Amino acid sequence: MAHVELIRQMLKDYPENLAEMKRLEQEMKDFVPITSDEVLEMLSFPGKSDDQVRIKKQRSLNRLFYIATSYKRLTWLLNHVSEKEMDKAYAKVAREVDFVQYGIRTLPRYYRNLLSFEILEDHRWGEVCQKFNISGSELNRKKARAVELMAKTFADQHQYFGFYEEKFDDDHTGTV
Fold it and tell me: Which residues of 111-136 are buried (b: 16+ CB within 10 A; e: fewer)?
């Protein structure tokens, strides 16, 4: 039952994943791409003085000119790689958060209410026991049953959330 363990881990990681998702959303919103002038100013090559010579923006027929003319492509690549890394990190946590929310919504009403109160609304163990008028051992049994039901849902629908049966690791983006 690898799916059951995976669901348990997703439920455990849900608060951290949700916070990470919000942090990454803000980071993507605040992302300021580097400009081609900034790239050109940063480029330096081995030379005679202080082992570096700054690239000059004026035309020349030497090697530095040909390197400097490719700075716009380098700028695009730097910005593209930065955006792609943020997208990849966001996709990983977002698919787990989305599946937990979906999986809880697909549960029968009692289990849905129980897990929504504990996981989605982030209430403590004692508060859950008190609200649902159950003991701690009964709560553990109910959660175990809810996790089994979510694992069945996961087994049927994991591919729709970007998870793949043969590869459940961090390096897979879920894109086809």
Answer: bbebbeebbbeeeeeeebbeeeeeee
